[in-house]
Design a protein that fits this description.
Blueprint lengths: L1 E7 L9 E7 L6 E7 L4 E7 H10 L4 H12 L15
Antiparallel strand pairs: 1-2, 2-3, 3-4
Amino acid sequence: MEKTLNRIHPVSDPEETYFLQVSWEKDLGAGFGITLSDGQCAWTGKVSEAEISREAADMEMNREKYVEELKKALIAGEESADKYNFAIS
């Protein structure tokens, strides 16, 4: 299993720091687990391969391109920090 952990500062509350962990088996497109923590509480979830395909279709985006964008937003870290914004609600 592969995992990444990134520090994020959401645009909804830029003074706060959150930690985003993403874990996957084969590749991100096959589904992944996600954990978000503010250092005191943690929230976890899973995203299935079917959900990824459905979201790509809803966005009228090629599935492979959508998975590449997910990789950039969720696991690329600092190199993509200025391209993607996170909002916590």
